[in-house]
Design brief:
There is one protein chain. Helix content is 67%, strand content 1%. The chain is built from ten helices and two strands. Helix 1 packs across helix 6, helix 2 packs parallel to helix 6 and helix 6 packs across helix 8.
């Protein structure tokens, strides 16, 4: 082993060790567990509401209103549709709000607790610390989405029948293929939150108050959601990070319609690059002692 490799190995081991510790610390906090609990409760409430409504013979009610995909009208026929409905219900606000809380607190929370300076004493440096924090937020994006999907699948299986399902295009696919589509949709939803995570991390580098960073990130989310509904702003709406969020419904078409899905992934990558670079520029020049 060369001298350079000998020096690099402890640094790499420290990075993985720090990432593992960061993941453990984040996911065992009561705040994180509470957020995951709320997300898991949404499919339960939706499933019970649909079950009660159909139990009195009134039917699942419409299924075409609003701007999201009309999956709710299919839940009584196949419980797997509860997964798609729950993701569509949580993506506009609940999921990104949870991501905003975790991302906003990533750096600012350490600063307000007085632990940020001690973390920077370690050999990783500011860049690696920032990347570790972002990786932790992305891990939460994936976990939060899977919590919603698994909760919905469990409730759907308990309250409604399972089996072959009908796509948006009207074709029939097997239950196994439907499960595969559900997994792809969950991954697409998690990927849709990458830009939001980078934005929250950038905001977190601007202040030493975790609460202020979380509130600002969630406030930006609400503002963008409102602006995305104003018809007069249609020219710039395709550049809002939330504009293509519901494109995951195209994975339930036969064949799959990829255009908006690819646009969404490209937009999230752009936001991650821009705000990730801004977070790095801010954090690497920030006076931690101030």
């Amino acid at each position: 082993m060369s001298q350079a490799e000998a020096v690099r190995t402890p640094s790499v081991l420290w990075t993985f060790g720090f990432l593992r510790n960061e993941l453990w610390t984040t996911f065992r906090r009561w705040r994180t567990l509470a957020l995951l609990g709320v997300l898991a409760a949404v499919p339960i409430l939706v499933g019970i509401a649909v079950k009660i409504e159909t139990g009195d013979g009134s039917g699942p009610g419409g299924g075409g209103g609003g701007g999201g995909p009309a999956f709710i009208s299919q839940i009584t026929n196949n419980g797997l549709f509860l997964v798609f409905t729950a993701l569509a219900a949580t993506l506009p606000f609940f999921l990104p709000m949870a991501i905003g809380v975790i991302a906003g607190d990533a750096i600012a929370g350490e600063a307000s607790a007085g632990t940020l300076r001690y973390l920077l004493v370690a050999p990783a440096g500011r860049t690696r610390l920032l990347l570790t924090k972002y990786a932790t937020v992305l891990a939460f994006c994936l976990l939060a989405t899977l919590v919603v999907a698994v909760s919905a699948l469990t409730v759907g299986a308990l309250l409604f029948p399972l089996g072959d399902l009908t796509t948006i295009s009207g074709t029939q696919i097997s239950f196994a293929e439907g499960l595969g589509r559900a997994l792809l949709i969950a991954l697409a939803v998690a990927a849709s939150l990458v830009g939001m995570a980078a934005l929250g991390l950038f905001v977190s580098t601007l202040t030493n108050s975790g609460i202020a960073a979380m509130a600002t990130t969630v406030g930006l989310l609400i503002t963008i959601q409102i602006l995305d509904q104003i018809p007069q702003l249609h020219a710039i709406q395709p550049y809002f990070f939330s504009h293509y969020w519901l494109s995951f419904a195209d994975l339930m078409r036969e064949p799959v319609y990829w255009d908006d899905l690819v646009k969404n992934l490209g937009l999230q990558a752009l936001y991650a690059a821009v705000f990730g670079s801004a977070a790095w520029a801010r954090f690497t020049t920030k006076d931690i002692g101030s």
